[in-house]
Amino acid sequence: MWRDALLVAGKDLRIELRSKVAVNQVVPFAVIVVLLFGLAIGQSVSPSGQALPGALANAGILRGAAAGLFWVAVLLSTLLAVQRSFAVESADGARDGLRLSGLDPGGIFLGKCGATMVLLVALEAVLALVAALVYDVHPAAGALLVATCILATAGLVFVGTTYGMLSSGTRVRETLLPLLFFPVGAPVLLAATKAFDAGLSGTPGAATSWIELLAVFAVAYGAVGTVAFGPLLEDG
Amino acid sequence: MSGYIEAGYAVVLGGLTVYGTLLVARERSARRRLPEALWRRRPASHGAEPAAGSPGDGTGPTEP
Amino acid sequence: MRNTSLLLRATGLLAVAGLGATVWLGIWVTPPDEHMGNLVRLLYIHPPAAWVAFLAYGVAFLASLLYLWPRTRDLRLDRVAGASAEVGVVFTALTLLSGSIWGRPTWGTWWTWDPLLTTTALLFVLYLGYLALRSVPGDPVVRARRSAIGALIAFIDVPIVYFSVDWWRSLHQPPTVDLATRQMYVHGSMAWTMLLGFVAMTLLYCWLVGHRYRLATLVAIAESEGAEVALAERRAEARSDRLVGAGLGRLADVPSSPALEPAGAARAETMVETLGSEWRPEGGAGLAGSSAS
Predict the structure, then answer these.
(1) Which tens digits make up the pLDDT trace of C247-267?
(2) Which residues have a Cβ under 8 Å from the Cβ of A147 and sit 6 or more positions away?
(3) How close does chain C come to A183, measured CA to CA in Å?
(4) What is the pTM of this model?
(5) Potential cystine with A82: which of A160, A185, A210, B62 (Cβ 3.0-4.6 Å)?
(6) Structural domain range at position B7
(7) Is residue B13, in this structure, part of any structural domain at all?
(8) CA pair distance A115, A141, nearest whole angstrom
(9) How far, rounded to the nearest angstrom, does the alpha carbon of residue C98 sit from its chain's CA centroid?
């Protein structure tokens, strides 16, 4: 199963290397979202009703919300990455090829998740740099941030890929997938944001239970996805 | 009373009445659209009974 | 089969009677609460609705799980899951609305990010997604499996959502507005009325799910066998029109038509059987008489 997973992940990453869709489209999308949040919050005014001197006034709000905004951007990008991961399989009967390949379905699932995770973690690295710059935050506790990124991304990708497979056979997948995915991803958004807050404010001890929650989420949905992927692949 | 209580009861009971009524209506129209052959092949012994799903079939919750 | 129809009807009548009694007791008979005053009267209808919502999702989850288990796989379970989830979404919406109406005079705000409220709101959108997934057209068996896995994913999320929101609130700030029901002392006639509310709402849930299940069965018949049967009927009509004349078309031998496979017809027959005897289209009695002759 693990060997099959590596095969599938290698295939998806090679496709990405040649097509560069994630690099050229998904990463810029995430950066735009981060900038848009800055613009939206930049409209705020002081309680007395007069516009505050921009840079100074908004820095506080933005810095406080930085972690949450970052993770909303990641959540949106995950959707795009998952959709891309299945768009690759939908053309030229690639799905039939996958079905006939004799690879273990659980392995295919883990492979596709692995490739998407690699792309998303790379995206998060770029996005973190941009967000740190424009939101003016100074990360402390780097190890905690990295652990949060990996666990949260794993959970999101497991759910996203399972739902992606669930909706990929239907004609309404573009609209169905976000409706299915975002509510389930909500606790990950919450937990990752809280863990990031702890990391940014220099109190990593507060993040323990959130990290545990992220781990439970990732394990639960990884297991469900691995088991459910076979039947879903057969249904086509 | 404050109006909030009446509003709360009205929302819950009204919503359930609307849903129940819609459900019975959907059921009847679905039954009507079925081809008659399916029903014709059944024994005629129950023929005298009027069609059910009528409003008398428990119309959902209504305030007394 | 007649018995299930009668049972369903009795359940509906009992539910309406029970709800009527709850309203009467709740608004006119029970005393106002020492702390909450008359606002306590929403206690008899809001928590029961919330309970039914969670019950409905639990039933949908169990039915989906049983469907995924190969030994108990049955499309009827899929229909139960769908029916229960739809009723659950209705009750969740009503719970949110009535809770909001209750919250306004109690807490001074229409909405607060209390763990239970937030979880309920997320549940609502979660199961809206599940219903959307169910409504995608396709082969019934494929759709049933897809929906069952979707229900599984959604239900696993419920405790995770609850814990995350609970920690979020407790880490953030001590809960200043706790749900009133948690610290309220319910006694005497109030307790009985509340219990009656729970029972009546549960009965109503059964009635609604029963009818939603029947609707799903009718739709399933229309999808699978309906087209075949209708086709066979038209063919038989056309053939007998040519041979005998228009008036006797109805007596054409439908089962001998090639389009209506014996197995398919038998399956349709058993599905019709589950609908209960009185469930015939208008005018069905006359037709039944003519075909039996």
Answers:
(1) 444 444 444 444 444 454 455
(2) A211
(3) 5
(4) 0.79
(5) A160
(6) 1-32
(7) yes
(8) 27
(9) 20
